[in-house]
Task: structure prediction
Amino acid sequence: MRVAMIGSGYVGLVSGACFADFGHDVVCIDKDAGKIERLKNNIMPIFEPGLDDLVAANVRAGRLSFTTDLKEGIKGAQALFIAVGTPSRRGDGHADLSFVYAVAQEIAEALTDFAVVVTKSTVPVGTGDEVERLIREANPDADFAVASNPEFLREGAAIGDFKRPDRIVIGVEDARAQAVLEELYRPLYLNQAPFMVTARRTAELTKYAANAFLATKITFINEMADLCERVGANVQDVARGIGLDNRIGSKFLNAGPGYGGSCFPKDTLALIKTAQDYDAPVRIVETVALVNDNRKRAMGRKVIAAAGGNVRGKTVAVLGLTFKPNTDDMRDSPAIAIIQTLQDAGATIRAYDPEGREQAELVLKDVDYTTDPYAALTGADVAVLVTEWDAFRALDLARVKSVMTTPTLVDLRNVYRPEEMARHGIAYSGVGR
Ligand code: NAD
Result:
């Protein structure tokens, strides 16, 4: 089947490459000419494990190509995916749908034969209705249907998630469109696919409900961690103790610096706004967003406390900047607020991240970047581990102690054991232990 992926970012590029790998004929379209040029030269615009090889193999096989020309790119395609960004709108926190609607407009002008327009971007309830209205208005004769197919992949594990998803949610109310999408996803499964067909609005809301639930789970355990610190309990044991209950489940119960990234912060906010507009406020999610927001600067204060209550004139080594390992994505990373808090208090920041430097430089000022963790630690008064990259999981602790001015580590991911740190003479604090 011929597929057009409009928007070739984290979601569009990974989805496009995976569909091609399953044998479909995919064109990835993006209005960013630099991005398309790089892709044509097999230079990945993002860091995602395995993506370069997957793209190269499918380009070689003639199943994957790139263009900036939407009209050309969607020719003959039965499925037109919209995978552009839906960031928070400045000022009010609603999802900014201008990119989605711009694409709908362009599609309308270029449509010739029947095609399913599939919204893969995370969009508020009712966006599918509006996309349909826009296309119909601009091109009253067009033969098309609009479906919702939210994406659940995780950055850092995106290819595996796309190829072996827990479920595929399709919001579609048109039999022809449903048939196209079933055929498109069929190669993912040998037996029965966890394929769920619902009304379009239900599919749109399902994505927000999923992210809000996961954000709630993270925030819940983070608050338990704070309580553990006050009462002398261990949050990792609490998490295990509740997670072994199948009704709760053990995933997403790692206490840490608060959630970040390109999805949870903006999606919780957009859900809150939608719910308020419909007079059905989601109070739990409102609280989750508030608690999480406050937590990031609180983690900065935790580092200040570990440094004896004052970081003015001191050097803080920051290990990890991206919002999680195995991505270069810095969008809403907790590291940003933590570093700003420390800078506000007068600290000098020296940071190392295996892949995030380029993106970090766009959002953080006055940071001294190093090319390995020990260079960041050398001469530092306190270190904070923000992102649990593999490179930080087995640091040479004797070396850490010898290069730091005052060996002190704040481990916001609970990578290390307190006893181990004590043995090496490093002052240590984790989260909720
Ligand atoms: P992204 O910013 O990485 O990519 C979006 C791309 O769309 C950019 O390359 C941009 O140039 C392009 N674009 C914008 N307007 C365009 C237009 N008119 N024509 C062609 N291209 C255009 O964003 P992303 O992280 O891939 O997210 C895309 C959507 O998927 C968002 O709604 C997001 O919430 C959702 N989502 C993201 C993830 C994730 O992990 N990143 C996971 C699930 C869902």
The pocket of nicotinamide-adenine-dinucleotide is lined by residues 6-12, 29-32, 35, 83-86, 99, 102-103, 121-122, 151, 153, 155, 262-263 (CB under 6 Å). Residues 265 and 390 are 25 Å apart (CA to CA). The radius of gyration is 23 Å.
